[in-house]
Design brief:
Layout (H helix, E strand, L loop, with lengths): L6 H7 L14 E10 L9 E7 L4 E9 L7 E6 L2 E10 L4 E5 L15 E8 L8 E10 L1
Antiparallel strand pairs: 1-8, 2-7, 3-6, 3-8, 4-5, 4-7
Length: 142
């Protein structure tokens, strides 16, 4: 049988060994927790900011928990460069939760010199008033 190695693992077993980004191997994981109660005025295209990636931080995954936000409503999680990088739009008509593990966002590294804001974007319809939204975003850093 053949052996195959992931990109970072291959660096650690190479001769000579190569360095791996500290946020990938041996970094610390932080959780950015945020909550928001809707006003009932959040319309399609509006953004709810829930965190950021500092330079050198890597987005691992997230969880978005919400009450019933109203018929036809959706939320997606992204940033200015890709508004659904971490979580594609999904129905929020009924209370529930969604995983933020989109392929483009899982492991996304902020390799810029500035923080990148993370936001939920409203879609489908205006959100109902007085409904809670909670985010748990898992970020690695060196």
């Amino acid at each position: 049988m053949a052996d195959f190695y992931g990109t970072n693992h291959a660096l650690t077993v190479a001769t000579p060994r190569s360095l791996v980004n500290g946020g990938d191997f041996g970094g610390s994981v932080r959780v950015y927790t945020d909550s928001y109660t809707t006003l009932g005025t959040e319309a399609v295209g509006d953004s709810i900011y829930v965190g950021y990636l500092k330079p050198g931080e890597r987005f691992l995954f997230g969880i978005v928990v919400f009450g019933a936000l109203g018929a036809s409503t959706t939320l997606q999680l992204g940033d200015a460069g890709d508004d659904d990088r971490y979580m594609a739009a999904g129905s929020t008509a009924a209370a529930g939760n969604k995983d933020a593990r989109a392929l483009a966002g899982a492991g996304f590294l902020n390799d810029t010199d500035t923080a990148i804001s993370l936001c939920l974007k409203v879609g489908g319809a205006t959100l109902a008033a007085g409904i809670g939204i909670r985010t748990e975003l898992f970020i690695s850093r060196v």
